[in-house]
Amino acid sequence: GGSLFEALMPLLVLDELRHAPGSLGRNALAHTEIQRRFALEHLEYPVWGLSPSSTPAGDGYGEYGVRLLGALGYRTGAVTPHAAALALLTEPAAATANLRQLAERYPLYGDFGFYDAVDPKTGQVAHNYLALDQSMILIALANHLRDGVIQTYFAADPIIQRVLPLLAAERFFD
After folding, report:
1. CA gap 126, 128 in Å, rounded
2. pLDDT 10s digits, 26-41
3. What is the pLDDT of residues 5-14, one digit of tens each?
4. How does pLDDT run across 128-166, given as a tens digit for each residue?
5. Region of 58 on the Ramachandran plot (φ > 0 left; ψ -120 to 50 alpha; else beta)
6. What's 38's DSSP letter?
7. Residue 58: its pLDDT value, please?
């Protein structure tokens, strides 16, 4: 669908930038850059990180992304803190600044962490906590602050070690 969640969630456990630099890693970097530029420059949002989430209008769940990045082509709309946190693994400085902007501009942070989403055009917040969001934020922060601790643990598994050379051989962009 072109969401940042779909592109970057695997980075929580697999250091694609290291183990698959010519394929998945490069794809993650491209998704992050396109997402950021699309939201900031094309949509003229002050923040970025389009991802499926609760709808800020409170009427359900919506799929948001950058249409040209996905086969399904989700619509534009809500920005999510969990997508911004996932980008700590691809563009740490930009993601940190984006998380700060989200917290400063919108009432997005509550007693139990970040709420699910915000509509940057209206400022309307989806006041829901999703366990999946909170876990993605926590693991992204752990990896960012502790030099890929979860990724390192995953890559140390003997079964995973056997497939890492296959990932390294892939070239999506040649």
Report:
1. 6
2. 999 999 999 999 999 9
3. 999 999 999 9
4. 999 999 999 999 999 999 999 999 999 999 999 999 999
5. left
6. I
7. 80
Q: Is the pLDDT of residue 73 over 80?
A: no
pLDDT given for residue 52 in this prediction: 93
Closest by alpha carbon to 119, among 13, 173, 43, 29? 43
Please give the angle made by the CA atoms of 93, 14 and 9, to the nearest 5 degrees: 65
Please list the alpha-helical segments (H only) found in the chain.
4-8, 16-19, 24-37, 81-86, 92-105, 131-145, 149-155, 158-169
- Residues 18 and 40: their CA atoms lie apart, in Å, by 28
Residue 50, beta-bridge partner list: 79
Sequence-ordered list of residues with C-beta below 8 angstroms from that of 107, at least 6 positions apart, any chain: 125
Do strands 53-54 and 61-62 pair parallel, antiparallel, or not at all (unpaired)?
antiparallel
**99 membership: H or E segment, kind and range:** helix 92-105
> pLDDT at position 12, please?
98
> CA–CA separation, 15 vs 103, rounded Å?
27
Residue closest to 8 by CA, chosen among 76, 92, 116, 125: 92
Length of the chain: 174
The tokens of 52 are what?
């499926």
